[in-house]
Here is the input.
Amino acid sequence: MTGTFKSMLDQIVQQNIAGEHVEKMTAVLQRIDELGSEHSDFNAFNAQLISENLFARFSEYYTLALTEQHSASGNQGNGVYNDAELLKSCVSGLVQSIESIEQGYKQAVAEAGKSGNAIEVEVLQNPDSIIQSIRELIALGQSEGMTLPDFLRIQIEKGLDKAMEGVVVQREGLMFEKQFTEANPVSPFHVEEVSEALEVFESLCRNSAFGVPESKEWTMLRDDIHRKYVSDIARFIKIRSSWEDILLDLSIWSLSYTKFAPEIFPWAETSRPFEAVKETQNINPGVIREKLKLFHKFFGLEFLDIFRHPTFLWQIKYHYHRNFLNFRLKKCILCANRFNIFRKM
Amino acid sequence: LTFKMQIMEIIDKYKAYYSVRAKKYEGNGRYKNTYNAEMKLSQAMQACSTLEDFRDRLGDLNELCAIALIRDQYIMESEHFGKHQEKVRKKEAELVLEKIDSCVNVSDVMKLVSDVSSQISVEISMDESQADAFLGKLHLLEQYLVYSNAEVPEMYQHIIRENAGEKLIELIESMQTVEKNNSAWQQQWKVNPDVCFEHRHFRHCPISAEHLQELRNLYKTIVQR
Here is the structure.
């Protein structure tokens, strides 16, 4: 866990930066190590770090050490303005940032690989788009005849100053999110939400002075959109999961009446499959009735309402295979009616 | 070009740069303070005729631009969280805005932001835990109700009631775990399901307030909170 801090301190040392702030960084890191050896409970360790504000203090000293170094190097040359040198220093900072982004990405992939999630992290956290934006900035800085003030001005006019904030890759990210949501639409609200987000983002871009929105402004607007849909999404998912649960119970219950029930899951897994089958046959109707009562109480829906409900129709349209459903439901409902499972509804 | 001409060219380019910086925020009401600070900086720079002038006139104007940007961002955050009744999240913006005038430079502001943010992030986590402790366990309460009330033949009743008992234990244990974990962050932290009726949490609730109250009463009886 302290690896990141240690590499930050190493980076400072490698740049031959020393002084009060570096000493304080070292002291904070020592304190973090001390707490690490004192606590066996990770949660308590983390709480102690936060209460002593150690993460923030370390970052603060790190920033101060770098700032001091930067100011000192800017004053080199007895106060004579050296545009080429200043521009070179800006560009080399960008080159370093690519290195650290790539290093962070490799570490994240390696870390995820330990739990078998490397591919997911490799795809979803791929920093190529951000790196591409930073490379464009570097190319601008290295173009012939470039001066520092032009470099600074042009990057604002082209929105390249947003490279490090990642705003330039927002559109791409939103489009990916939209396609992903449309390919696997959890609810109509998810689809509406991401479409609206893309529209608002485009409108914000159009109204921004240089075509790229301010990140904070966008974050707030994106959150507004999410909040608009969050209650509908919660209700949609709850209604769907409630009837899915009921249908699953019904399905298992009807399956328990097949001749081969004791030989299949879940009954075959028990020590006494025949008794377990009997249990399902006797317990599930009462359980299903109680679940239906809560379903009606919370959402005003009866059993047959499930099949007309927008959540069900959505699942049919995007997620279930109609033939499978027809077979399963017809069998289940037929069986349920025959055994009068809905008698107290 | 002579050195002097080169310098004059650089000066003009810096003037153009500072002018573009201000223009970026022109007409954007959310960045009023930033625009004003950038305009002051740009105006000071436009009046320069030598590089020495730049250094002399710059003073703390650049720092004031950074502080103005942070101020605008927190004003936005305060309005945003106020609008959405996020009283805990809003605290960070309120505290920063309350103290930002006492900061003399960007380092001071960064320290303020970092201190306040650490303090409030703990409060936010504790608040979110309240929602997770109760709203996140509604399914267990429902299962408990189902298993407690299900009518089954006499010889199977002990099984279904055992299931209900297991749900009770899960609810109590999850409450005890979250209280133990959270006490490491905030002494004597206790679960309080009443907090979940406040808008910031209730918006995540899929059932009506009336039904949630019924489940809340049941939850309180079970976990004795």
